[in-house]
Amino acid sequence: MSNPHLEISHVSIEFPTPNGPFKALNDVDLILTEGEFVSLIGHSGCGKSTVLNIVAGLYQATTGGIILEGKEVDSPGPDRAVVFQNHSLLPWLTTYENVELAVKQVFKGIKSKAEIKEWVEHNLKLVHMEHAMHKRPSEISGGMKQRVGIARALSMEPKVLLMDEPFGALDALTRAHMQDSLIEIQARLNNTVIMITHDVDEAVLLSDRIVMMTNGPAATIGGIVEVDLERPRNRVELADNKQYNHYRAEVLKFLYERQSKPEEKVA
Amino acid sequence: MPLQFIEGATIIQLKNLASKNIDMSNEEQKMGTRAESVFGAPGISKRISNKFKMSDIKWNNLAKQGVSSLGVPFIAIAIFLTVWGGLASQVQTSLGQLPGPSQVWQQAVVLFDEHKQERQKEVAFFERQEKRNAAKLAKNPDAKIKTRPYTGKPTFFDQIITSVLTVATGFLIASLIAIPIGVICGLNTTIYTALNPLIQIFKPVSPLAWLPIVTMVVSAVYISDDPLFAKSYVTSAVTVTLCCLWPTIINTTVGVSTIDKDLINVSRVLRLAWLTKVFKIVLPASVPMMFAGLRVSLGIGWMVLIAAEMLAQNPGLGKFVWDEFQNGSSNSLARIMVAVFAIGLIGFLLDQIMLSLQKSVSWNKGAVIR
Question: What is the DSSP code (8-state) at residue A138?
Fold first, then answer.
């Protein structure tokens, strides 16, 4: 284990409501090393997205804070690029222009015009979207939009890549395809990633560690599974792998036995 | 009634045209097969006949669309004209019978002739003046010559141009003020809360209530020996501005404040500068709402301008209507009716201009804009 790269340090957050403050997160504490891929998993409404938004700087923690490479960060910035669940591409720009907007912003005065163009194209190639560079988001499929969203995030060369259920809105086949792409990209770039997911298979397949959140309110980390599977990982080979299925079962047990949703218990 | 007959005839003609097209397509297909036998190349001839088929389908659709998009409105207009003609003849006013379509058309022609005559007079006036000046110069090269402007009465068409220029000026000024205010209000809740009560109070005020104040302020403030614009023009334009502001401000504010939150988050993560954010994200995202406001503004502005011109006797279509009313000849009502149609037509054209402007700046070319 190398030095801590990103530290989520005792983060709690309260939202004001008419009935007094609502404590969404309580003392979330997590340290990531460089190049680590961490998944956050939990039932919907448990505050996974809130954790991500706090890391991104879009929300402010009530107590505790985020330390990136030894410095506290409390506002959004391109060093913590976000891949949003619904892609959030600007619909009036082409895919190229969407990535270009980010590249120009981050590398203004560092890269020349030609270098910027090359870098934009490089990132679109990385997600296999070079054929649709001059198409608008409305002209490409949901999976393609998410690819461009990932390209935009990667093009910022972030220190941490934050993904908020990046494949949640995609159909199962496209999702599998995107996961394979992400494995391939991760093998090449070795980014530090925090990814939120609902999908147990996705979490085990992609992560080095799976952080399981308890149910809210005042959600916190309920358990961590270290996924010690060799990379590169192959979904077909892993389907029969004992170790893989063990991790899978562990996460499932946590989600459906220890943290089953209260309303589901009643039912 | 004759109009309806003509209308019926056009529809039948269009239908004939459509069926002719079908006939033609058959012939062309035959030609295609002939081409095949002549050239011995089925691929080429097939492609040719396919092309013909495509164009035939297009033509048939066009003909059908023509019937429904031109035919139906024409029938409606014909009915309107008939009813109008029938009812108008029943109404006797102190200025004679209420004019029907034919009298109004006559007066439209008369107004056009008057305009032409006035222009000829103007040309003649300048010719005379030039001759006189040339003669003067010939006698004495040092003579001071005077060029006097033509002071003829403005015609109906002059008044139209004045009104259109005035509404355009007022609307442009209003938009330049209202869009930035709307953007700022939409982005900043504090400023919105501060300005909202003022906007809500001024919005329902009829600009005609402003007119006396505007008139007094303009005559007090706009003082110059050689004014670039007439005072009446400034007064009218400012009045239009005052009523064009509010719908644009309100719609732009709503448009900006309802932008997808994720898009704003994108700009936060990218740390876009404020202006970049406005031009790259905020403005494109709020174009539809903004233009809805602009179109409402322009419509209100045009209506208000006519009323303001009537009330303040400022040159323009409103003054034309008022003058004709005061004139009280037997043709006055028909001439006013011509003005009514002109006002309506220009209002419609202004809206169409805004519509095509909206289409050209809108990023979503697929969206249906009405």
Answer: G
pLDDT digits (tens, 9 = 90+) for A193-236: 999 998 999 999 999 999 999 987 888 998 999 998 888 888 88
B276 contact residues in A (CB cutoff 8 A): 105
Same domain for B195 and B74: no
Asked if B343 and B240 sit in the same domain, the reply is: yes
Q: How far apart are the first and last CA of chain A?
A: 44
**Order of strands, sheet of A71-73, starting from the edge strand that comes earlier in the sequence:** A20-33, A4-17, A63-68, A71-73
What number of helices (H) and strands (E) belong to chain B? 13, 2
Q: Structurally, how many domains does chain A consist of?
A: 1
Q: Which two tokens stand for residue B59?
A: 């033509």
pLDDT of residue A110 exceeding 80: yes
Burial of B90 (0-12, 13-18, 19+ CB in 10 A): exposed
- Same domain membership, residue B177 and residue B325: yes
Residues 6+ apart with CB under 8 A from A9: A29, A64, A65, A66, A67
- What does the pLDDT read at residue B301? 94
In a domain, A257, yes or no: yes
Place of tokens 């355009």: B168
- The verdict on A52 touching B (C-beta cutoff 8 Å) is no
Start-to-end CA distance of chain B, whole Å, equals 33
Cβ separation A101–B364 shorter than 8 A: no
Longest dimension (CA), chain B: 89
Q: Are A202 and A170 in contact (CB under 8 A)?
A: no
Lookup: tokens for B99 = 């004019």
Q: Is the pLDDT of residue B38 over 70?
A: no
Q: What confidence tens digit (pLDDT) does each residue in A114-142 have? A: 999 999 999 999 888 989 999 999 999 98
State the pLDDT confidence band at A2, using cuts at 50, 70 and 90. low
Point out the domain boundary residue: B54, B73, B88: B88
- Looking at the fold, whether B84 and B167 belong to one and the same domain comes out as no
- The ipTM estimated for the assembled molecules is 0.87
Assign B364 a pLDDT band (cuts: 50, 70, 90): confident
Whether A105 and chain B come into contact, CB under 8 Å, resolves to yes
Average pLDDT of every residue of chain A: 89
Distance, CA of A125 to CA of A133 (rounded, Å): 9
Domain residues for the domain of A252 are 1-79+161-169+192-267
| Residue of chain B nearest A77, judged by CA positions | B269
Give me the pLDDT at residue B89, please. 87
Domain boundary among B54, B88, B122: B88
Question: Nearest CA of chain A to the CA of B290: how many Å?
Answer: 16
Structural domain boundaries enclosing B240: 156-361
Report CA dihedral (A162, A168, A174, A177) to the nearest 10 degrees.
40
